[in-house]
């Protein structure tokens, strides 16, 4: 009988330290919700209210099926992974949840939380990039903010040992190569800070944030962000609104190009009559302006 394919969590066991003896823990145990404190650096910041309500109803009927991950502090328990389940359990009126309590350093907790975030079905590109950077930083023993420059440096001047480690970590992540990550995904970090914050809050999805990021004028971008949130502008509408209005010279050239005799002749009687009416109006305006100048 063929062996079952390992889960992403199993594949990353050695990277995340889950196999280290000091991180081992017994099976799940019940922990009071009022003893669980959310970490300040949780990677996920937005939770859809409708989705939480649905999960809360499921928890009322079936309980919490997957334990949350905690680490113990001097006074309480700090949540590493499972904030959505904790929130839904509180909505469902539970007083405790099943939990796995693990000894973990700040760095190990960051990586475990990042892996949990990567396995979400509703993961957006910014969440994916930030979680990936956390995991790669742990693997390469560098600060998170140095990962992207390092990836670009490896593309220009590869170091065989570093490349091998990068190939391995991205292969286990199952999200493409580190080269494609550096080229295509990490660019989201260059979005203006206000767009990144809206993405983290869940107020703006990637496609519209990307369209807004291409607006280089700060004032115009701020105006379009407000309009996008208030009027629910589409990507096409954002791009159209970001275009500068045509100059008079440009419009006159377009009119001259359109007034081709053969093109006008192909129109119907009603359309040609409308064109003649408009041309008469234009002639009246221009003659009036010329008379005022003289």
Automatic annotation (TrEMBL):
<dbReference type="Pfam" id="PF02195">
    <property type="entry name" value="ParB_N"/>
</dbReference>
<comment type="similarity">
    <text>Belongs to the ParB family.</text>
</comment>
<protein>
    <submittedName>
        <fullName>Plasmid-partitioning protein ParB</fullName>
    </submittedName>
</protein>
<dbReference type="InterPro" id="IPR036086">
    <property type="entry name" value="ParB/Sulfiredoxin_sf"/>
</dbReference>
<dbReference type="InterPro" id="IPR003115">
    <property type="entry name" value="ParB_N"/>
</dbReference>
<dbReference type="InterPro" id="IPR041468">
    <property type="entry name" value="HTH_ParB/Spo0J"/>
</dbReference>
<feature type="domain" description="ParB-like N-terminal">
    <location>
        <begin position="29"/>
        <end position="118"/>
    </location>
</feature>
<dbReference type="InterPro" id="IPR004437">
    <property type="entry name" value="ParB/RepB/Spo0J"/>
</dbReference>
<dbReference type="InterPro" id="IPR050336">
    <property type="entry name" value="Chromosome_partition/occlusion"/>
</dbReference>
<dbReference type="Pfam" id="PF17762">
    <property type="entry name" value="HTH_ParB"/>
</dbReference>
